[in-house]
């Protein structure tokens, strides 16, 4: 793990130092997540494609990056700029950009803001997110806005992870979501288990602002006017029905046809047997779909 600019990051990189600049993929998490969400999945990618470097980023206000004081506004665009600054300072030219949920809009914003610094060709993966209106579920477990509101009511320091899990379940969130949320708790104070306490690692106020931006940000113009050589892949989770309206699918399919004429690319994929948490629900299926982006690419 290293610190650079306004975000913290870690990488899994080929050990053969005779390769001066391995092809690089950058992976971004969603709201209330962290780069650790991608850990096991990326280890598998790194084993299968050992000539690649994978950079995992804690977005502003999340994970280890929450300790870095960043100036607002906390938006999709400002988050994308953070990552663009990071890859510029690292002097890497990513061939693949992968973003889940909020991170999906961030990678689209990266293309919008900095098409020129991005390599040609570059493949962009937007996992279970659309470029425009956010259609969150009505049930508590799949409604980030409701989850953020509930977390804001909790104390900043707690004595038991189990109590927080139980409180979330009682509020209507699933056990899986509750257990995922408490991964954002870190021990504070003395190491003694009898007197230990935990504090949240994220900046919830900043995250609340980021989620509002996620709902409001419209990036359809990027998808419908792609720079030459940029290929955007949308992945829809089969069980994430509420997030995708018929008009979204029709608009993406229309963009597929027009992008091909302009030298770019848009493609739609469906991940079977998966809800919104695609890398946890069906990692094998996701691996198969993403793999073709890493095949046949030389350093």
Automatic annotation (TrEMBL):
It holds the Pfam family Abhydrolase_6. SUPFAM superfamilies: alpha/beta-Hydrolases (SSF53474). InterPro entries: AB_hydrolase_1 (IPR000073), AB_hydrolase_fold (IPR029058), Serine_prot/Carboxylest_S33 (IPR051601). One of its GO terms (molecular function) is hydrolase activity. It comes from the Eukaryota. Residues 26-287 form the AB hydrolase-1 domain. Keywords: Hydrolase. PANTHER family: 2-SUCCINYL-6-HYDROXY-2,4-CYCLOHEXADIENE-1-CARBOXYLATE SYNTHASE (PTHR43248), ALPHA_BETA-HYDROLASES SUPERFAMILY PROTEIN (PTHR43248:SF14). Belongs to the peptidase S33 family. This is AB hydrolase-1 domain-containing protein. The lineage of its organism: Eukaryota, Viridiplantae, Streptophyta, Embryophyta, Tracheophyta.
